[in-house]
């Protein structure tokens, strides 16, 4: 159980890798975004389809993550898009979309 009262849902890493491949994303990008969320949410391991808000995410943390994504990946995510994405896998998808537009 996390500090926010939600129990994390974790799958084996092989399933995350399969999800990333299914979405056509680099597996390492999904892992990196999951690790980034774990760092900012101070909650350790984060799965590719864990929900940002269920993990205790809030607007300030979201903005900090968006800023880091911009610095590290050169992709500007809107706050709205980030919140609607909700999971590391979907945020990775937004990053990939932003890279292809650049």
Oligomer: single chain
Q: How many helical stretches?
A: 5
- What can be said about the biggest beta sheet? none
Helical fraction: 55-70%
How would you name the CATH homologous superfamily?
Answer: ACP-like
For the record, the CATH class is Mainly Alpha
Contiguous runs where pLDDT drops below 50 for at least 5 residues? 1-9
Shape: globular
Write down the Rg. 13 Å
In the CATH hierarchy, the third-tier topology is known as: Non-ribosomal Peptide Synthetase Peptidyl Carrier Protein, Chain A
- Total individual domains: 1
Average pLDDT metric: 82
SSE layout and pairing:
Elements: H1 13-22, H2 27-41, H3 59-73, H4 79-85, H5 88-101
What report would you give on this structure?
- There is one protein chain.
- This protein has one domain: ACP-like (Non-ribosomal Peptide Synthetase Peptidyl Carrier Protein, Chain A).
- The protein is mainly alpha-helical.
- 60% of the residues lie in helices and 0% in strands.
- The protein contains 5 helices and no strands.
- The chain is globular, with a radius of gyration of 13 Å.
Structure summary:
With 102 residues, this protein is mostly helical. The protein has 5 helices and no strands.
Q: Which terms summarize this structure?
A:
0% strand; 102 residues; Non-ribosomal Peptide Synthetase Peptidyl Carrier Protein, Chain A; mainly alpha
């Amino acid at each position: 159980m996390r500090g926010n009262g939600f129990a994390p849902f974790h799958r084996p890493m092989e399933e995350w890798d399969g999800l990333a491949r299914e979405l056509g994303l680099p597996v390492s990008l999904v892992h990196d975004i999951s690790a980034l969320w774990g760092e900012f949410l101070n909650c350790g391991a984060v799965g590719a389809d864990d929900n940002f808000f269920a993990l205790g995410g809030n607007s300030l943390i979201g903005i900090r993550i968006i800023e880091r994504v911009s610095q590290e990946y050169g992709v500007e995510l809107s706050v709205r898009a980030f919140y609607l994405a909700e999971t590391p896998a979907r945020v990775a998808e937004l990053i990939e979309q932003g890279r292809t537009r650049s």
